[in-house]
Amino acid sequence: MHMNRRIRIMTAMAVLGGMWFASCSTLRQGASAPAEETHVVFEPGGLYASMRIPALVVTKKHSLLAFCEARIGTASDWADMHLALRRSTDEGKTWSEIHVLDSFKQGPVGNPVPIVDDRGTLHLLYQKDYKDAYYISSADDGLTWSKPKDITAVYDRFKPEYNWKVLAPGPGHGIQLKNGRLLSAVWMADSRKLTPRRSHHPSCMATIYSDDYGKTWERGAIVADSSATISNPNESQPVQLPDGKVLMSIRSPSAVKRRAFSVSADGSTGWSTVRFADELFDPTCMASITAVTSAKGKPALVFVNPDSKDIGKHPRKNLTAKASFDNGLTWPVTKVLDPGAAGYSDLAAGPGNIIYCLYETNTKDNKGWNYSLVLKKFYTNWINR
Question: Total structural domains in the chain?
Fold first, then answer.
């Protein structure tokens, strides 16, 4: 009797284990995933008229860190601002109070570019008044941060080649390459109009990087300058490809209204001639790109922007994700995330086939540029390859 009971228990455990394994395998193969979720992260109100310029990372402890420009009194790019952070430790369901990382009473402080390194340290690049560059870091999952370090001298190294009057990193997340290098896109403008506020064109874009975990930063080569090929390249974002090369996704107001790309072997030199992606309509808006693994285990790129190609006058609407399986040459898979108002966005890949997107939109009664920032949590099961 005792032996028979042991056999029955072991058989039941084997069956249950097989059912669990089959369930996990089915999810990995792209079957039904958990329900998508949407959570408001930043909303205007009180001191803040607009919450703009999202940046998002998932830490080594799986916390979500959301950054933005909390614009005071007005939605203007030149408003007084707080550089704001909120943290979530439950996949975006609830969020901490706003933590002001830096502030400026005479103009902007923003363009946040967070980077998570393989040691778990968080690095953040940003600008003040579009003329000074700063760097801070956190070793405790974003709870506390170092004092701001002025790294404007890194941008000054561009001046013999490009006499900028305006500087800004990113915006949106930067990356750590497989060799340990921390990498951020940056853009600069040689403004012809200097008063009352410096214009953001003509412009070029480049990279800055650190090979010593943020202790020092260096300038890379200029990726693209304004030319007959591409007009005023600016807000851009890098992604590393499976072969180690770096693909740069570039915003520009070029007449073709398509996203531009360039490739480098190391993220700092030898950038290829800019090409435009026919399938990626660009209404001249910052966009996000990240590397993921599809639910079927294939490497893929995900690109998100407001795809308003079929909407008259091309407003910032119809936030759409597109996937590529050939390093950004084609984008055959599409998913609409929000058909309504949508502006800048930033992507972060989480564990368990999760993709997070933090994006600008309107909630409640706020309209126009008085944006809120909303988190969309979805899964790679839509990337059906």
Answer: 2
- Side chain identity at 277, as an amino acid letter? A
- CA–CA dist 80, 77 (Å, integer): 9
Residue showing tokens 């990113």: 170
Cα distances from 382 to residues 36, 240, 279, 332, in angstroms, run 11, 22, 18, 12
Query: What is the per-residue pLDDT across 265-280, written as a single tens digit (0 to 9) for each?
Result: 999 999 999 999 999 9
- Dist CA 1 CA 131 (whole Å): 82
**Strands of 275-281's sheet, edge to edge?**
236-240, 246-250, 258-264, 275-281
Q: Same domain, yes or no, for 98 and 5?
A: no
How large is the average pLDDT for residues 210-233? 98
Cβ atoms within 10 Å, residue 230: 22
pLDDT at 313 over 50: yes
Q: Name the nearest CA neighbour of 205 among 160, 244, 155, 255.
A: 155
Q: For 76-85, what is each residue's pLDDT tens digit?
A: 999 999 999 9
Q: Taking residues 238-266, report their average pLDDT.
A: 98
Q: Are residues 103 and 215 in the same domain?
A: yes
Pick from 369, 374, 334, 336: nearest CA to 357: 374
Residue 182 shares a structural domain with residue 328: yes
**216 and 166, same domain (yes or no):** yes
The residue ranking higher by pLDDT, 16 or 303, is 303
Residues 164 and 308 in one domain: yes
Q: What predicted TM-score, i.e. pTM, was given to this entire model?
A: 0.91
What is the span of the domain harbouring residue 115?
34-382
Across 285-371, where does the E strand assignment appear? 288-293, 299-306, 317-324, 333-341, 345-350, 354-361
